[in-house]
Request: fold
Amino acid sequence: MRVVVTGGAGFLGSHLCRALLGRGDEVVAIDNLITGSMRNVEDLMAHPGFTFQHHDVSNYVHVPGTVDAVMHLASPASPADFQRIPIQILKVGSRGTQHALGLAKDKGSRFFLASTSEVYGDPLVHPQPETYWGNVNPIGPRGVYDEAKRFAEAMTMAYHRFHQVDVAIVRIFNTYGPAMRPDDGRAVSNFLVQALQGKPITVYGDGSQSRSFTYVDDEIRGFLALLDSDETGPINIGNDNEFTILELARLAIEVTGSSSDIVHEPLPMDDPMQRRPDLTLARTRLGWKPEVQLREGLDKTAQFFRTVL
Ligand code: NAD
Ligand code: UDP
Reply:
């Protein structure tokens, strides 16, 4: 297959490009590097099946030649970015998604949207099945991301219904692993980097809020299973083992052998209190399940951060 990956120089995008090339696909990565880095794809630049376009997909997207699939991952994803670059996030979720869908329509490609568990907002149903419509504050600081992704899902389904574009929507739950930015502001990267540097671990609030963390290799395996299927989705891909943020902080200290203390800082506005995927659809329709548990994944991620800090 010849696959276009928007956001191909990001954390998940670069792993995806590598996995696609590894199974013999050709990849055209498109990225404006707003939160990604060429370092993530350095090893791929000499690969004969890989091409890179430095481009903002919120502007018109042009790819010469045939395209079998368009995988739309371009979007900043860390809550720290929601305050820093809110308009870019809204633009890439709306205009960027429309351009990526337009490319898929033009080329007759399968379209794959990287959506998010954030469409469930601060969920009132737990765990979250795909049928849950969510509890999102549209005007809060997270609204720029949550609503952009909800709009992207709506636009994807409209192209599917109105233009018969073959689509797949994945709802990604907190994913971590090598190639995360050490300073991207997310809990896993913050905690591991703080622990490795012997700095205080910053737990927001009392740390009783929960998340379910997925190791990147599991997530990418799920993406490919969905891409290769006939499913439209949305389908949750995540890990259904749930941890409090305080448990995550303690585990980060343990796997790094750090002597850091835990300090508490204010909880950001609209921070979801709980999050865990219902994985019934992924297990039954895709035959997929997560395999890497948190301690092992944190250990691998800490090894990566040791090499870049
Ligand atoms: P990331 O920031 O590492 O990757 C996003 C990439 O998109 C970056 O390389 C960035 O430069 C690029 N990008 C952003 N705006 C662009 C634009 N207008 N034009 C071209 N490129 C653009 O983040 P990530 O964690 O790899 O996330 C990838 C995708 O997965 C995002 O769509 C995100 O919303 C989604 N997602 C990620 C998670 C997670 O836990 N990592 C969870 C839910 C959803
Ligand atoms: N968090 C924290 N300390 C940090 C960064 C994040 O306590 O240094 C908390 C954050 O408030 C949230 C959880 O960890 O409750 C997960 O945050 P992250 O930014 O990783 O992802 P989210 O699921 O909120 O998008």
Observations:
- Residues 79, 174, 186-187, 190, 202-204, 209, 211, 245, 268, 271 surround uridine-5'-diphosphate (ligand 2) (CB under 6 Å).
